[in-house]
Fold:
Amino acid sequence: MDYVELHDDLERVLDDLIEKNRFVPVIVEGEYDRRALHELGVLGDVRVLNRGNSILALCETLAREHREAIILTDWTSGADGSPATCATRSRRAGCGTTTSCGPG
Structure:
């Protein structure tokens, strides 16, 4: 894959995220992640995982308010912050999830 293709693919992924975030919240690890997404044009509901509440509380809140969520965390998070943990707890709380699959 050349750089032009890579750029085009990245642009499509970002456009898709921006569109989905109009209706679906995004979960990120920290405030810097939220700010970075905002700078990239992701202006919808972006929730920060590490704000002092438990993951279960966040998942229960999301399940009450939404039918699905997008989880954008890296794979090196602590046990409670891993995408798999977030996805599992979100599903148990009744919220479908989409996890990122990029490198940490």
